[in-house]
Amino acid sequence: MSAKPFAPTVLVTGAAKRLGREVALALAAAGWRVAVHYRDSVEDAIKTVADCASLTGGAAAFRCNLGSETAVRNLLPTVIEQMGQVDALVNSASTFEHDTPESFTFAAMEKHLRSNAGAAVLLAQALHTHMAERFPATQEQPATNTGAVVNLLDQKLWNQNPDFFSYTLSKAALEAANTMLALSLSPRLRVVGVAPGLTLTSHLLDDSKFAALHKLSPLGHSSTAKDVAATVLFALQNQSITGTTLLVDGGQHLMRFERDFSLM
């Protein structure tokens, strides 16, 4: 009797809490085994793993500092060793620290670029290598088994303002990488961006302010975590999408905001 195949496995970075957690839970509910990446949120990661495992029976936590190239290069092999395979990657983790053109420094730029763009590219490289090793192509039998990478971006890229300057630069780099990776890693991998609008509140916004800002869009509402997670799942499942970005923001990218939401 042949061994029972694994359910598809996805690595979700930043999956311990907030939007990454919502994405992880949605994918688990859809039948994916989830590798829950976290950096410092140990208790949150344990809870996310438990909640995902209750939905699919397959989840595990993996700690990694995405600012360290060595740590990032070791992450996917560690997931593969423990979970057997990886079929998809969702780059959700983000460093998000405020600066402006006036306060900009090389250090701030490098910190954001490492974790928000560089790590995503290295993980996509590693997934491509893994897929090629699992499903070697020949001249007679081209590659038919494909994996997918989804990069979480931001509607700020289509509606720019000077706030969170280094963060925005890093997301712009990741958006450009979408196109280049989609070209260079095909047909093994599809690469898709998902760009939410204002989705979750933070310590910078009280509930009433968040609710008011959430309504500032042509549709009268921005994205919810469920909207974003559903779009990530769609991007993973649709075999004909690559090299583009799906904006999930109620149309906020069509409006002009002089400041970041958190500072309005």
Defining key terms:
Rossmann fold, 7 helices, alpha/beta, 264 residues, globular, 7 strands, 42% helix, 7-stranded parallel β-sheet
Largest sheet: 7 strands, parallel
Shape: globular
Number of strands: 7
Q: Please tell me how large the radius of gyration is.
A: 18 Å
Reported by name, the CATH topology is Rossmann fold
Report the β-strand fraction as a percent range: 5-15%
Q: Could you tell me the mean pLDDT?
A: 93
The assigned CATH architecture is 3-Layer(aba) Sandwich
Description:
The protein is of the alpha/beta class and 264 residues long. The protein has a single domain (9-136, 145-254), classed as NAD(P)-binding Rossmann-like Domain (Rossmann fold, 3-Layer(aba) Sandwich), CATH 3.40.50. Helix content is 42%, strand content 14%. The chain is built from seven helices and seven strands. The chain has helices spanning 18-29, 42-56, 69-83, 106-134, 165-184, 207-214, 225-237, and strands spanning 9-12, 33-38, 59-63, 88-91, 147-152, 189-196, 244-248. It has a seven-stranded parallel sheet with strand order 3-2-1-4-5-6-7, sandwiched between helices. It is globular. It starts with 8 loop residues before the first strand and ends in a 16-residue tail after the last strand. The model has no long low-confidence stretch (mean pLDDT 93).
